[in-house]
Amino acid sequence: MPGNSFGKIFKVTTFGESHGVLIGVVVDGVPAGLPLTEDDINFELKFRRPGALYTSPRIEEDKARIVSGVLNGRTTGAPIAIVVENRDVDTSYYEEIKYTPRPNHADMAYIFRYGFENWDYRGGGRASGRETVARVAAGAIAKKLLMLIGTQVASCVESIGEATIDGDIDFENALKSRLLSTRACRKEYDEKFRVLLELISSEGDSVGAVIRGIVIDVPRGLGEPVFDKVKADLAKAMFSIPGVVGFEIGLGFNAALKRGSEVMDEIVVMNGDIRWKKNIYGGILGGVTTGEPIVFRVAFKPTSSLKKPMRTVDLRTMKEVEIVVRGRHDPCIGIRGAAVVEAMTALVLVDHAMRSGLIPTTKLSQKDIEIISERWERYRRCLLGQGYQ
Ligand SMILES: Cc1cc2nc3c(=O)[nH]c(=O)nc-3n(C[C@H](O)[C@H](O)[C@H](O)COP(=O)(O)O)c2cc1C
C-alpha cells in the first residue's frame, strides 16, 4: 500500500514534489455546506511560508487554488483538491550533487527504495519540507471544521538548540507565537532565539527545535482503542512530518524518571465537573481524550543540509568525498514545522470527531454553518487584531 494518504473519514492525500509543477492535496470526506475560500487556506499557509527571516530564503508566494469540491463558497461533499504552484525552483544545484547523496537527508534511503534511475533528486522530491504545504492546506479545512465543536489547535517553539523557554506555556502564548519571527512561545524569548539563529546561520550551521502543541476545548471520549488511540494517531501524524525525531505527550519521557507518587494526577471536582488537577498526562488516558487540554512536544532535528562541508560517497566512483550544500535551506526547520504540527494535529482530531459522530460526515446544518463561521471569524480576528497581516 502506498503511503500518501492519511485519515479514515477525513481523508487527505498529498501529491507533488519540491521541484515539480505544483504541490497539491485532495481532501475527501468533508461534509457539504462548509463555507470555504482560498483566503481561508492562504491564511494558514502564511504561517509556514518560506522567505521569513529565519526560514528558507526560497521565495514562494504559496497561494492556494481550490480546483474542486467547492461551489458558491461552500463545500459540496465532493473531494476538495487544492493546488499550490512551485515558482521559485532552481534545480541546477541538484544536478551537481545527484551522485553524492546528502548525508542526513532522505536521498540515499529513497535511492535504496525506488532505484537511482527513478529517484527524484530535485530538492528532495517528495521528502522535501515543501510537501508539507499540502498538509497545512488540508489542516486549514480541518481547523475550520473543528470550530463546530469549539476545538482549537496552537503550537509554538519551546526551544531552539539548548535555549529553552522556562515556565508554563498556555494556549494564548502558543497562538500568539504566530506573530513572532522565531515562533517563540513567549515574546521575551524571541530576541534570545534570534541571536542564537543569527550566530548559527553565520557559521553555515543548523539547529534543532522543540515544538509545543496545545489543543483546547477537546471533547471527552475521542479515540478508538486499542490501535487507533488519539495518542497513537498523533504520534503517527507527528512522525510523518519530515525532520521529526521525537514526540511525547504530557510529561512524556520525564514521567519515566519519576516515582508513581510524584506523577499521581488527582481526579478532582472543579465547578461541579470531573477534572484532573495537573493534567500530567496531557489530556489523554487510555488513548482516549479526557477533556483536559491535549499537550505534547515534538522534536525536530537540525536541518540536514548544511553550508559546512559534509562527507558522503560519490556513487559513480564509490569513493568518499566532501560536499557543500548550496541550495536554500532553513537554519531551523522547527520554526516552519510548527505550522505543520498544528495542521497534522487538526487532521487527527477532526477525523476522530467525525468517527465519534460529533461532526456530521455528510452535510452541515444551517446552524452548524453559523457556529463555524462565527468562531472562524473570531479566530482570525484574534490574530489580525494583534497586528498579524
Ligand atoms: C517545513 C519544513 C521545511 C524543511 N526544510 C528543509 C530544508 O530546507 N533543508 C533540509 O535539509 N531539510 C528540510 N526539511 C527536513 C527534510 O525534509 C527531512 O529531514 C528529510 O525529508 C529527511 O527525513 P527525516 O529527517 O524525517 O529522516 C524540512 C522539513 C519541514 C517540515
Characterization of the model:
This protein is 28% helix and 22% strand. The chain is built from 9 helices and 18 strands. The strands form 6 sheets. It has a 5-stranded antiparallel β-sheet with strand order 1-2-3-7-4, covered by helices on one side. Strands 9-8-10-16-11 form a 5-stranded antiparallel β-sheet. A hairpin with a 2-residue loop joins β5 and β6. α4 (132-146) packs across α8 (333-355). Bound molecules: flavin mononucleotide. Flavin mononucleotide (FMN) is lined by residues 48, 56, 105-106, 124, 127-129, 132, 241-243, 301, 303-305, 329-330, 333, 336-337, 340.
Quick recap:
The strands form six sheets. The protein has a five-stranded antiparallel sheet, covered by helices on one side. Strands 9-8-10-16-11 form a five-stranded antiparallel sheet. Strands 5-6 form a two-stranded antiparallel ribbon. A hairpin with a 4-residue loop joins β1 and β2.
Largest sheet: 5 strands, antiparallel
Number of spatially distinct domains: 1
Spell out which ligands are present.
Answer: flavin mononucleotide
**Radius of gyration in whole Å, from Cα?**
21 Å
Strand neighbour order, sheet with most strands: 1-2-3-7-4
Query: Per DSSP, what share of the residues sits in E-state strands of 2 or more residues?
Result: 15-25%
Give the number of helices.
Answer: 9
Specify the structural class. alpha+beta
